Amino acid sequence: MTNRILILPIAALALGAGAPPPAAHGSKITVTVTDVRNGKGLLRACLVSSESDFPECKKAAGHHATSVDAHQGQVTFAFEQVKPGNYAIALLHDENANGKADRALGMIPKEGFGFSRDAPVRMGPPKFSEAAFDMADKDKAMTIRMRYLL
User: Fold this and answer.
1) Residue 86 in contact with residue 59, Cβ under 8 Å?
2) What is the pTM of this model?
3) With contact defined as beta carbons under 8 Å apart, do 42 and 68 qualify?
4) Tens digits of per-residue pLDDT, 101-112?
């Protein structure tokens, strides 16, 4: 009888009874992309915390990536479980869904692009510091305008 009394609480703990659900680690960044010119292909987005990974979005620690179907006008998606830190977002409207940024004459983007803070594009992509924003331990929402050169 004594053995049963000891086994029941242990069995209940082993099955998770009374345990709180696991806590999510990090916050959510909801991104609304505006001025999407058509519904072809995908919107590819990456969130990086390192200057050396921006805007190419290399697979490194602190890297988050997502792809969603394109829709003319506006598209919304989210990065989940983002830890506090300094980040930048790069977007690509991959209209032909080939997984790369197509270029005309080897350097002019044929597809749409965008960056957090709507960082300016001059003779190339913006620097990490121009697109970077601080992420605290609470959810954040932002809007990024898609830009097209051709």
Assistant:
1) no
2) 0.82
3) yes
4) 999 998 899 999
Pair of tokens at residue 136:
């605290």
Are 111 and 92 within 8 A, CB to CB?
yes
Write out the two tokens for 119.
């960082």
Measured CA distances, 121 to 71, 72, 97, 117 (Å)? 24, 22, 23, 12
d(CA 138, CA 150): 38
DSSP element (H, E) containing 73 = strand 73-82
pLDDT-wise least confident of 3-12, 61-70, 71-80, 141-150? 3-12
Q: What is d(CA 79, CA 31) in angstroms, rounded to the nearest whole number?
A: 8
Handedness of CA 15, 18, 20, 21 (dihedral sign): positive
DSSP 100-149: S--EETTTEESSEEEEGGG---SSSPPPHHHH-EEE-SS-EEEEEE-B--
